[in-house]
Design goal:
The complex is a heterodimer. By secondary structure, chain A is mostly helical. Chain A contains nine helices and no strands. Chain A has one domain. Chain B is 57% helix and 7% strand. A nine-stranded mixed β-sheet of chain B has the order 7-6-8-3-9-10-4-12-11, with helices on both faces. In chain B, strands 1-15 form a two-stranded antiparallel sheet. Chain B has a two-stranded parallel sheet with strand order 2-5. In chain B, helix 12 runs antiparallel to helix 13 and helix 27 runs parallel beside helix 30. The chains are: A mainly alpha, B alpha/beta. At the A-B interface, helix 4 and helix 7 of A face helix 20, helix 21 and helix 22 of B. Chain B: One of its GO terms (biological process) is GPI anchor biosynthetic process.
């Protein structure tokens, strides 16, 4: 997992220990907007590339257009549409790498810049904290997948076929919806339970994001949901195009929603600043 | 008068206008106005408003339908067969015929004069007809045949066989099946004892299920498959033509689909088309080779194809169908071939070719084969085929004209008859002149031919105008009335909502506005037009249209004047999601794909709201609320998804759909389906009881009503369908069938009696669902009295009312549908509970916010305050109605009507009950959703003794929202059907969807009126009797 912390120097922000937040509300960790924009663009490009190019990695199988041979699709699309299940499998791998990288950035932004203590002990400690965080993020993402599968069923996914497609779609959505948030914020622990839980419910149940960082978490999630909802629309159309196969449209549309959400959060924060 | 709506009569002193609560206030004093409306009770006001809306819908639907739905009466009369006393008018030239239909064979595919530059793929490929015509023009005739739109195969086959024009609705005795029950060439051939053979497109087998002695149908649906049908036709056709098999048939019909499928798949400009046409050419060569001298060969396209290879509309390329007549023996024309007569220049071609109407083949073939012309025919004989003898030509044309005259007289449209009378007189006179002159002079003959031919063609033109032309003024007027009814509904909704408990003042003003606009202006034009044209119907129509439009404008104007958009901050997701879903649902009607898959679309939309609620549930104030919203939403998602899986697939949904609605015959209901229906029927009472137990409302009449009467009626309903299954069960001894039949019949009748007499009587005469508990006081003093079930006195009583129509719909629905209905009823109750919990949450949050001391709140205000309903509350209920429609085995197509329901409790079709039962079966889910509507306003609402409670206002508000939803759906369906009236899918997709929406809207109007006037009326009266609490 390329979950590397950014070696660059952090812009100087308010130096606050986040654990002291019980008594005094922490000044919001400032999101470096310019850097955020640059990395967001990089992140978006990576996400799109993971969908467009990773599924071409399979060699040796003969790829042919799945249906409607008389309406040839662009040859670029054929490896993506020939086998949606394989496309999704590759895409999810790429997506996992991307969101881990992104989540780590969010986490660093949230922690704010601290004077780096390069002693081996503290490095060890940081490494363990990171490992714990990654583990709980992965577990939560899997849990989110388990929750999302029945939700996708409720929206009308076939009950007796395409099960793999549904699971991959759920995993994809969970990676977009759950991973960055939990990676950045962590699961509410026993000590900070009430406040953290209240924050989570404020962010994701009432969509009440207040700081730039919160927006960077909430807007992409909302965008993902709206994108996924809209992405179901092309499925029943009788255009007879291979790219209409389930779950490609939902995947692409939710991905675009995620990216649009990211830029919207940047735009909102930039306008405010 | 309409300009002033009472601004909000806010209840609390500091309540803002759009605060969604209303607290009890004393009964308002009667309106100070001295007008006649002040005497009306609130219930009457509500009913009048709903009646007005229904009248708007009726008027709009009537006007729109008059312009849009083209109907034709089918006449069962047949032309009498020829016999010794009634010999053929013209001696037959051929005893046998081979009729080959090459689907979508456009004129230029066989024309000797293709357009320039010719296409290498389809011009001059099928060259046999032009070769033979060049060789012997008297035995080979090529025509361009005009095929009347819609150029779809089934309509064209109807035209080719009956000689009539296609319309969407052929109103006849046999509405249920697709079979042609009119007189046709096929039925005349059978009456003449000819043996018919058929191979190819199975549409023929559906249209003439019993006519073909030799039948080889092939599935016509799979457009991807270019060859199966054609190869099958060739495989059967060629052997029949061998001389050893010649005696087995008299007329062979072959229908090739390959050319059409190639057109749909790749269009005409591909080498696939060339290969296909070459194959057809080879087949025709072989047929010509094998056929004998007594056989007439007819090769024709049923329609053409446009430049992309599609068809269905009325463009020039689609209506140009190639037609070729060929005979080896008797000549078909004079040696010069076809000369004279109407010609047609194919686009791009330089030499015109002979032009006929496609239906002209019907009288021509009939006379050539020696059978009477079918009774409904409107075609005129092709003159070439009789031109070799002027006497014969005159006789053929006259017989033809007389047949059309008989038809016109039988059809009985006075206008058409009047328009044709002059032409007929002329034809008769020329016939008389011919008869009087002893020697048939050629000029008299020619005159008679011309006069009769003129008559026939005029008749065709007249009827084409009657049947095939949309009336745009009617369509637009209808759309205007229907479209304006939406802002009217919104105005009324906002008015009732904003004036809260004083909504009656608003309603009175609205009603007075309606009456004024209706009484003052509209009678004028109506009377003028009525007197001018001496037509009462016209006067009534003018009155209705002007009254509807004027009153709508008068009601809507205030909305335009005081336009204020809701502030953005108030647009939280619960509020806009409902209107947004309505918008998406209506917008989806613009695409035929979404209409075809509407069952999935509504399931998708219905899942959206609970998921949003689920996400938002975590923000509810208490853990208990969070859990309850979570479980209730998850439950309704689960149920609607499972119920939504029950479907009878539209044919367009294949191959992506599997039929899971097992209707008695095919596919046979599995035993587990029957068992499930019975099990749920017995157990659903328990589930419903679970909704009453928390408020201790399973009291009073509820226990016996629900647990005994209703439960066993549902069981009887399920058993009815098990008996129905048993009747057709193979293992049953035939001797037992009458017994099963009788048992089934009486079971259904007992169930009717119980549902229509016993249950309503019991419900109306019993008290509220409450019980009184006297506390055990140890000291023996005055014991405190507790009223159990008080908190839900309204809701529980109304729930019992809904159970009555539910049982009725349950009875007329087939087993899988019964399962679906029960599931959706539970889902409805879950939704009602969710709405209630959310209102509690709103109240609790508000009282947190209002109370000065944090953590403490006035619990009494939570108990007595009411949250105003919102538009979003009704959307899931409306969607449940749609899901119910689809999962009880219906689709927006005519063929999915379940005629079986007409025989529940009646051994034969009985008017008016049988149609009513079919309507109940089809629209039952919509009716039930409309009747469940007041539950949203009444659930967990406790009466306020000696006071008033705005449940009627809330119900009316919900009812207006609910009707708005269905009006939106109807308007969109009508608009899309009218807009796309030339779309090739209009008669398959858009028009049936419009018809469904139209009837649904009327059913919903009636359901809502019943709910408000009867259901809520009696419930309110019962509450008033017990607690002296007035519903306002």
């Amino acid at each position: 997992m390329p979950a590397r912390t950014r070696p660059k120097a952090q812009p100087s922000g308010p130096k606050t220990n986040s654990s002291s937040s019980v008594t005094t509300p922490p000044p919001p960790p400032s999101l470096p907007l310019r850097e955020y924009f640059a990395l967001l663009s990089y992140h978006s490009a990576l996400l799109i590339a993971s969908f467009l190019f990773l599924p071409r990695s399979t060699k040796g199988t003969r790829l042919s257009q799945r249906s409607s041979a008389d309406r040839p699709e662009h040859p670029f699309l054929t490896p993506l549409t020939a086998n949606p299940l394989r496309t999704m499998a590759w895409h999810v791998v790429g997506l996992a790498v991307c969101v881990t990288w992104w989540g780590q950035h969010l986490r660093t932004w949230r922690a704010g810049s601290k004077t780096r203590d390069d002693s081996p002990a503290s490095r060890q400690k940081r490494r363990r904290a990171l490992a714990d965080r990654l583990l709980e993020t992965a577990a939560t993402t899997l849990f989110g997948t388990v929750i999302l599968v029945p939700v996708i069923f409720a929206f009308g996914a076939p009950l007796d076929s395409h099960f793999g497609h549904t699971v991959f779609l759920a995993l994809h959505l969970s990676l977009l919806l759950v991973w960055p948030v939990i990676h950045a914020l962590g699961i509410p622990s026993a000590e900070s339970a009430i406040l953290d839980r209240f924050r989570l419910s404020r962010l994701f149940c009432q969509f009440g994001a207040e700081t730039p960082l919160e927006r960077a978490l909430v807007y992409p999630a909302v965008g993902t949901l709206i994108g996924a909802w809209i992405g179901a629309a092309p499925l029943p159309l009788d255009w007879d195009r291979p790219w209409q196969s389930y779950p490609l449209t939902v995947t692409v549309s939710s991905l675009l929603g995620y990216i649009v959400g990211g830029y919207a959060s940047w735009a909102h924060s930039a306008l405010e600043a | 008068m309409a300009g002033k709506r009472p601004s909000s009569t806010a209840v609390g002193p500091s309540e803002p206008t759009d605060s969604p609560t209303s607290t009890p206030v004393p009964a308002p004093s009667p309106s100070s106005g001295s007008t006649w409306t002040s005497n009306l009770s609130r219930r009457s006001l509500a009913l009048i408003l709903l009646l007005y809306i229904a009248a708007l819908h009726l008027t709009g639907l009537y006007v729109f339908t008059k312009g849009f739905l083209l109907t034709r009466l089918t006449i069962p009369a047949v032309s009498p067969p020829y016999n010794l006393d009634h010999p053929p008018a013209v001696p037959p030239t051929h005893s046998k015929a081979v009729i080959l239909i090459i689907d979508a064979l456009r004129t230029d595919f066989i024309s000797p004069y293709p357009p320039t530059p010719p296409s290498p793929y389809h011009h001059g490929v099928l060259s046999l007809p032009s070769e033979l015509t060049a060789l012997d023009p008297s035995r080979s005739l090529i025509f361009n045949a005009f095929s009347d739109p819609p150029t779809s195969t089934m309509q064209r086959i109807k035209g080719i066989t009956t000689g009539s024009l296609p319309t969407f609705i052929d109103v006849g005795a046999n509405f249920a099946s697709t079979a042609i029950d009119e007189d046709s060439i096929i039925s005349q051939l059978i009456a003449a004892n000819k043996t018919l053979g058929f191979m190819g497109d199975d549409t023929w087998a559906n249209l003439f299920p019993t006519s073909f002695a030799l039948s080889h149908p092939y599935d016509s649906f799979n457009v991807e498959d270019l060859h199966t049908v054609d190869n099958g036709v060739i495989e059967h056709l060629i052997p029949y033509l061998q001389s050893e098999n010649a005696s087995r048939w008299d007329v062979l019909i072959g229908h090739f689909l390959g050319v059409d499928h190639v057109g749909h798949r790749v269009g005409p400009e591909r080498d696939t088309m060339q290969a296909k046409l070459e194959q057809m050419d080879n087949v025709l060569r072989e047929v010509v080779e094998l056929m004998d001298e007594h056989t007439l060969l007819v090769v024709m396209g049923d329609h053409g194809m446009d430049s992309k290879g599609n068809h269905g509309g009325d463009s020039e390329l689609e209506v140009a169908a190639g037609t070729w007549l060929y005979s080896k023996g008797a000549p078909l024309a004079t040696a010069s071939g076809s000369n004279g007569g109407e010609t047609y220049l194919f686009p791009g071609s330089t030499t015109p070719i002979r032009h006929i109407d496609q239906i002209d083949l019907v009288p021509t073939l009939s006379l050539l084969l020696g059978i009477p012309i079918p009774f409904n025919n409107l075609g005129s004989v092709i003159p070439e085929c009789f031109a070799h003898d002027p006497v014969l030509l005159e006789r053929a044309t006259r017989v033809n004209a007389e047949q059309i005259k008989r038809y016109i007289a039988e059809y009985g449209d006075a206008e058409i008859e009047a328009a044709l009378s002059a032409s007929w007189t002329k034809a008769e006179r020329s016939a008389g002149a011919l008869e009087s002159s002893s020697a048939a002079s050629s000029s008299a003959l020619r005159q008679s031919v011309e006069a009769h031919r003129e008559f026939s063609q005029l008749a065709l033109r007249q009827l084409r105008a009657l049947w095939a032309q949309f009336s745009l003024p009617h369509i637009l007027t209808g759309l205007l009335i229907l479209g304006l009814s939406i802002p009217v509904l919104i105005t009324l909704y906002l008015g009732v909502r904003n004036s809260s408990v004083k909504w009656d003042v608003f309603a009175r003003i609205s009603i007075e506005t309606i009456v004024m606009t209706t009484v003052v202006v509209p009678p004028l034009p109506a009377v003028v037009l009525g007197v001018l044209f001496q037509d009462l119907g016209l006067a009534a129509q003018t009155f209705a249209i002007t009254a509807a439009i004027l009153s709508e404008i008068a009601l809507v104007l205030p909305l335009l004047l005081e336009r204020s958009l809701p502030s953005l901050s108030s647009l939280y997701v619960e509020r806009w999601i409902g209107p947004a879903i309505l918008f998406v649902h209506t917008a989806s009607f613009a695409s035929n794909s979404f209409i075809m898959w509407e069952d999935r679309v509504v399931m998708f939309l219905a899942a959206t709201i609970p998921v949003v609620y689920l996400v938002k549930a975590m923000a509810a104030p208490t853990t208990d609320m969070r859990l309850r919203i979570g479980f209730l939403c998850a439950g309704s998602l689960f149920i609607t998804r499972l119920v939504g899986a029950i479907t009878i697939c539209r044919e367009e949904q294949q191959p992506y759909c599997r039929v899971t609605f097992f209707s008695g015959s095919q596919p046979v209901a599995p035993l587990w389906g029957l068992a499930l229906a019975l099990l749920l029927a017995v157990q659903v009472a328990r589930a419903v009881a679970q909704f009453l137990i928390p408020s201790k409302s399973l009291a009073g009449p509820a226990r016996s009503f629900l647990g005994i009467a209703w439960r066993w009626i549902l069981a009887a309903n399920a058993i009815y369908w098990i008996l129905e299954f048993l009747e057709a069960y193979e293992g049953l001894q035939p001797a037992r069938v009458p017994f099963v039949k009788a048992a089934k019949l009486y079971l259904a009748r007992i169930s009717y009696g119980a549902i229509l007499l016993a249950l309503p009587y019991y419900w109306a005469t019993s008290g509220l669902c409450i019980s009184i508990e006297r506390g055990q006081s140890q000291t023996g003093e005055e014991a405190p009295v507790t009223v159990l079930g008080f908190a839900n006195a309204y809701g529980s009583t109304y729930l019992l009312f809904v159970l009555i129509p539910f049982a009725l719909v349950h009875l007329v629905t087939q087993p899988m549908g019964q399962v679906a209905l029960i599931g959706l009823f539970v889902a409805t109750l879950l939704h009602v509970e969710v709405v209630d919990v959310q209102r509690d949450a709103i109240l609790m949050r508000r009282s947190f916010a209002n109370s000065s001391e944090p953590g403490a709140f006035d619990s009494s205000s939570v108990q007595t305050a009411l949250v105003r309903p919102s538009f979003t509350d009704v959307v899931p209920l409306a969607l449940i109605g749609f899901i119910g429609f689809f999962s009880t085995g219906h689709q927006a197509v005519l063929t999915s009507i379940q005629w079986k329901a007409a025989f529940v409790g009646f051994p034969e079709v009985t008017y008016p009950y049988s149609p009513l039962l079919v309507i109940l079966n089809t629209w039952g889910p919509f009716l039930l959703s409309a009747l469940s509507l007041p539950l949203l306003a009444l659930w967990q609402v406790s009466p306020r003794p000696q006071s008033t409670i705005p449940v009627l206002a809330h119900t009316l508000q919900l009812a207006l929202a609910f009707i708005t939803y269905h009006t939106g759906v109807l308007f969109s369906a009508a608009l899309c059907a009218a807009w796309l009236r030339r779309h090739l899918m209009v008669w398959k997709v858009f028009a049936p969807r419009f018809m469904l929406a139209g009837v649904t809207l009327l059913v919903v109007d009636v359901g809502v009126m019943l709910a408000v006037f009867v259901g809520l009326g009696v419930t309110s009266w019962k509450v008033w009797r017990t607690f002296k609490c007035e519903s306002i």
